Amino acid sequence: MKKTIALTLVLAALMTISACGGDLAPNTVFSVDDLDKAVIGVVENTTSEVLTADYETVRLYAAPETLLLDLRNAGVDCAVMEKNTAKAAMKQVRGLKILTEFVKLEFRFAVAKENPDLRDDINAALDELDKSGVLKKMIDGYFGNGDYRYESPAGVDRSKGTLTLAVDGKLWPYAYDDGSGTIVGFDIDLARAVCDHLGVELKVSVVEREDLIQLVQYGKADFSLGCIYECDKSRELVDFTNPYIESTQVIVVRK
């Protein structure tokens, strides 16, 4: 079950009423620099929550539509969310606009520096998934309008061993609990597809987000995923594959 829960009929009715009439409160956020003094709304357990963690006042919401409705009604000063999510939710909640880009990141696999062969093997698998169109199908399935979910081909040979993936399991739609205790999501599908290509079993280890890099660094996991991007600090600790997806976060404000 996706973290973005289905809205109730009452909430849908409220959004319709709010979208059809009434004056908007004036916008107070005009650039990224204004975020330091703003009340920022984000959807919990998403990339946006991670990327806004250092700001003083961040309010969490269960669903993007709920967040944007509260933004329209001046419950928060702005929202930070993934660009495609924002565009989709703004079709239901009028009177808002995308102000500017907040940040654009390329997410990658983190791999131990002592294991360059694994890094190269993952890169080769990612290249194959890209060329075959499977990677695009997965991205569209989780972040676009599609419903594609990766399934391992029948008869995959996994006799070459096991690779352990570290994820935090609370980052929708990358890796999250489906409600039955099973961790699913885009990163899980991607890791499984890569492991199918490499001929190995995939073992998923759920850890704290702050441990994703260190577990790979010290050999407790073979690789980690979870909106991990290359920066000067993490580059000193682990190695990184080529990017597998680009995430653009935007700031949404009242018109």
Task: Describe this structure as you would to a colleague.
The chain is of the alpha/beta class and about 260 residues long. It has two domains: about 10-105, 3-Layer(aba) Sandwich (D-Maltodextrin-Binding Protein, domain 2), CATH 3.40.190.10; about 110-230, D-Maltodextrin-Binding Protein, domain 2 (3-Layer(aba) Sandwich), CATH 3.40.190. It is built from nine helices and 13 strands. The protein has helices at about 10-20, 45-50, 65-70, 85-90, 115-130, 135-145, 185-200, 210-215, 230-235, and strands at about 40-45, 60, 80, 95-105, 110, 160-165, 170, 175, 185, 200-205, 225, 240, 245-255. Strands 2-1-3-13-4 form a five-stranded mixed β-sheet. A five-stranded mixed β-sheet has the order 10-6-11-5-12. A hairpin with a 3-residue loop joins strand 7 and strand 8 (about 175). Helix 5 (about 115-130) packs across helix 7 (about 185-200). The longest helix has 17 residues, at about 115-130. The protein starts with 8 loop residues before the first helix and ends with a strand.
Biggest sheet, spatial arrangement of strands: 2-1-3-13-4
Largest sheet: 5 strands, mixed
- Please state the CA-atom Rg, rounded to the nearest Å: 20 Å
Q: What sort of overall outline do the alpha carbons produce when their principal axes are compared?
A: elongated
Q: Helix and strand succession?
A: HEHEHEHEEHHEEEEHEHEHEE
What's the number of helices?
Answer: 9
Percent helix, as a range, is 25-40%
The CATH level-2 architecture of the largest domain is identified as 3-Layer(aba) Sandwich
Poorly predicted regions: 1-21
Number of domains: 2
Please provide the count of β strands. Answer: 13
What CATH calls the topology of the largest domain is D-Maltodextrin-Binding Protein, domain 2
Percentage of residues in DSSP E strands: 15-25%
Mean pLDDT across every amino acid position: 90
| N→C terminal distance | 33 Å
Based on secondary structure, the structural category is: alpha/beta
Query: Any idea of the CATH class of the largest domain?
Result: Alpha Beta
